[in-house]
From TrEMBL:
Pathway: Porphyrin-containing compound metabolism; protoporphyrin-IX biosynthesis; coproporphyrinogen-III from 5-aminolevulinate: step 1/4. The lineage of its organism: Eukaryota, Fungi, Dikarya, Ascomycota, Saccharomycotina. It comes from the Eukaryota. It catalyses: 2 5-aminolevulinate = porphobilinogen + 2 H2O + H(+). GO terms for biological process: protoporphyrinogen IX biosynthetic process. InterPro entries: ALAD (IPR001731), ALAD_AS (IPR030656), Aldolase_TIM (IPR013785). One of its GO terms (cellular component) is cytosol. Its cofactor is Zn(2+). Catalyzes an early step in the biosynthesis of tetrapyrroles. Binds two molecules of 5-aminolevulinate per subunit, each at a distinct site, and catalyzes their condensation to form porphobilinogen. This is Delta-aminolevulinic acid dehydratase. The active site is at K213 (schiff-base intermediate with substrate), K266 (schiff-base intermediate with substrate).
């Protein structure tokens, strides 16, 4: 066969011209040009664990390179990251003092507690830093669940969402730019939106909803870091079942209707079909993936075993999220990416 659009290879078989791709990505820059979306520093949101001992700087065994910070130690650490181009953080409070946790999660929005103090410290020292707060009760309740419980251990929905909304409003009052409810209890976005409206804060507070958050085996290192493991039972009655793609789509639509301004899919790598669904359903909204503690720790463990190269696999994971449709990445690798990326 000979035609204008065939080329002759050494094995003698004719090759159609359109089948030749490699010339298009031989150069490193040409390879970068293949990205639909370029990974940039402003896509990264860094999780920060803040504890109630102001001078703490405790390594976290379960989470490589992460620490629990006291507010006094936070500023010099965050300064090094801001200097490298950090734009956004998400705060998690970790009360460690004996006896402060209760059934209602009172330390969540204690004015002297780690989150409120953390917000104020960061706002004062880093005027350009975008400050998000995870909104949940599990780090602050005596039982370790994400809401308020009945005697049988099930979630009291109305009381829980009312309490979560109060916490979110208090974070916004303290200066948080965004609140990110991760509890997964039905109807909380509506209550938070209404709470922000009533407090005259809705116009300056973004609600980034963990809309599609799955219950699985990937949050272990976080729960150790945050001391938020439920003392009894699990979170299967409120977080989504891993096979529940349709449920995730319903949760995404529901949260948009209730007033979410942006959404999070979590975990990331095992749920890229959900990210792609979110990119369709929430096409006019920012979409974040959360590469959770278990994913992060697994990549570190694999790198230590020599199975993967850490930097290469971190980029592969990040581009997986971008290809699937995310444009924001909540990642424990943020400090490294600030070194690795130039823009
Ligand atoms: C609180 C919360 C969790 C995570 C984010 N917010 C833990 C959980 O749901 O048990 C997980 C983050 C991670 O694993 O890195 N509800
Ligand atoms: Zn929780």
């Amino acid at each position: 066969m000979s035609s204008e659009h065939t080329a002759q290879y050494s094995n003698g078989l004719p090759t159609a011209i359109p089948s030749l791709l490699s010339g298009g990505y031989n150069h490193p820059l040409a390879r970068e040009w293949q990205n639909e979306r370029q990974l940039t520093k402003n896509m990264f949101i860094y999780p920060l664990f803040i504890t109630d001992d102001p001078d703490a700087e405790d390594a976290i065994n379960s989470l490589p390179n992460q620490k629990r910070w006291g507010v006094n130690k936070l500023v010099p650490f965050v300064q090094t990251l801001v200097d490298k181009g950090l734009r956004a953080v998400i705060l998690f409070g970790v009360p460690l003092k004996e006896g402060v946790k209760d059934e209602l999660g009172t330390p969540a929005d204690d004015p002297e507690g780690p989150v409120i103090q953390g917000i104020k410290t960061l706002r004062k020292n880093f005027p350009d830093l975008f400050i998000m707060c995870d909104v949940c009760l599990c780090e602050y309740t005596s039982h370790g669940h994400c809401g308020i419980l009945r005697d049988d251990g099930s979630i009291k929905r109305e009381e829980s969402v009312r309490r979560l909304a109060a916490v979110a409003v208090n974070y916004a009052k303290a200066g948080a730019h965004a609140v990110a409810p991760s509890d997964m209890i039905d109807g909380r976005i509506r209550d938070i939106k209404q709470g922000l409206l009533d407090a005259d804060l809705a116009h300056r507070t973004m609600i980034m909803s963990y809309s599609a958050k799955f219950s699985g085996n990937l949050y272990g290192p976080f729960r150790e870091a945050a001391g938020s493991c439920p003392s009894q039972g699990d979170r299967k009655a409120y977080q989504l079942p891993p096979g529940g793609r349709g449920l995730a789509r319903r949760a995404l639509r529901r949260d948009l209707e209730e007033g979410a301004d942006a959404i999070i899919v979590k975990p990331s790598t095992f749920y890229l079909d959900i990210v792609s669904d979110a990119a369709n359903i929430c096409r006019d909204y920012p979409i974040a993936t959360y590469q959770v503690s278990g994913e992060f720790a697994m990549l570190h463990a694999a790198a230590e075993k020599g199975i993967v190269d850490l930097k290469t696999i971190a980029f592969e994971a990040a581009y997986g999220s971008l290809r699937a449709g995310a444009n924001l990445l909540i990642s424990y690798f943020t400090p490294e990416f600030l070194d690795w990326l130039s823009l």
